[in-house]
Amino acid sequence: MTHQDIEEKEIIDRYVLHKLNPDERRAFQEHYFSCDECFEQTQMHARFIASVRQASKAGILTASSTENLRPTGSSLWMSWLKPAFALTATASIALAIALVWLVFNQIPRLRQEIVRERQAREQSERDNQQNIDRATEDLENERRQLEVERGERAKGQGQVGELATNREPQPNVPVVILEAVRSSPDKVSQLNLPATAGSAMVWIDVESGNRFNSYRLEILDSSKRPVETIAGAKPNSYGALVVNVPAKSLQSGKYVVRLYGVKGGQRELVGEYGFEVRKR
Question: How do the pLDDT tens digits run along the chain, 280 residues long?
């Protein structure tokens, strides 16, 4: 609040007469406690109004019965001087009382209210900043956790790709090329598996195109019990699935391979293949 605002809006008079709204009163108090000029003017206005009110209560300002006495000469002057001295004395007392009341009661109380309001505002600002900091920290932790999960997922997919090997047949590794059993159920491929072999290669030709994102192989023994499952297999440059199967999972006997095409989380049976293992 500026001095121009105070003069144009008669803030001091309205403040002393308690006619300011709460916002105006608070703004003026914050100003005049730090402004000696406005503080002095406010005290003068307050003392004047207090004196007038005190004189009115004391009956000094009411009509007197001096007209019946018809004083003359010096008595006339004395009749005027006595009320004047009484008014001055009463005003001085009233001003002293008002000043003491303001200094020891109102001003400290108002200053305490301003201090409390400032402290409450500062505390609210600190609480808001702490909430913002916590929310920012939570978002950062979630972002980091998401990055970690993405990294672990990518690592897992790489491991699946390594396990579901789509490499070309390597030397000295037994290979069996599978054909669908539907056309010739009695005709199955043979896999001669040396006792020293650590794994065997299974080769399956698949249809061309990109109808599926990947393939899943399930190897069942003669009792239809699963002995090995390979997921995430993809065709090589020859359009065939070539996967490694641990030799320990294959004993002498007949096996069935069920091939599923996988896309969008759904799988479709592509074909069944049979082969026979002969360990040497």
Answer: 787 888 888 888 888 888 888 888 888 888 877 888 888 888 888 888 777 777 777 666 554 444 443 444 444 444 554 555 556 666 677 777 777 667 667 777 788 888 888 899 999 999 999 899 888 888 888 888 888 877 766 655 554 454 444 444 455 789 999 887 655 556 788 999 998 888 999 999 988 777 899 999 999 999 999 999 999 999 988 889 999 999 999 999 999 999 999 998 899 999 999 999 998 8
CB atoms within 10 A of CB 91: 18
Question: Do 187 and 247 fall within a single domain?
Answer: yes
CATH number at residue 215: 2.60.40.1220
Residue linked to tokens 């005049």: 32
- How many CB atoms lie under 10 A from the CB of residue 152? 10
Q: Is residue 150 included in any domain, yes or no?
A: no
C-alpha triplet 136, 142, 146: angle, nearest 5°: 145
- Taking the alpha carbons at both ends of the chain, their separation in whole angstroms is 103
Rounded to 5°, angle at Cα 51 from 49 and 52: 65
Closest residue by Cα to residue 269 from 253, 256, 252, 255: 256
What range does the domain containing 247 cover? 175-279
Q: Which residues pair with residue 246 across a beta bridge?
A: 199
The enclosing H or E element of 118 equals helix 107-163
